[in-house]
Amino acid sequence: MTNTTEKPKKRQLTVQMDEDLYESFKRVAAANDRKMGLLVRDFAKQYVLKNGQGELFPK
Q1: Separation of alpha carbons 40 and 17, rounded Å
Q2: Out of the domains of life, which is the source (predicted)?
Q3: In sequence order, what DSSP letters do the residues of 1-59 get, joined into one string?
C-alpha cells in the first residue's frame, strides 16, 4: 500500500546577525528549553498571520 500523503516542501533560511545577539538568543532559547530554529519559524508564522496571507495557516 502506498502512502499518498505528501509532506510539505521545506526551505532553508540563512540569517546573519551580530554575534552578541546570536549568543544572547541561543542562551535565552536554551534557558526556555526551545530550539532557535523553532522560535524563528514561530516568529515567521505570527508575522505572516498579523501582516497578511494568514490564510496559509489554519487556526
Answers
A1: 13
A2: Bacteria
A3: ----PPPPP---------HHHHHHHHHHHHHTT--HHHHHHHHHHHHHHHHS-GGGS--
What are the tens digits of pLDDT across the range 28-56?
999 999 999 999 999 998 988 888 876 76
Task: State the helix-helix crossing angle for 36-51 and 19-31, rounded to 10 degrees.
Answer: 100
User: For the chain, what is the mean pLDDT?
Assistant: 88
C-alpha cell at 57: 495557516
In this structure, what C-alpha cell is assigned to residue 10? 521545506
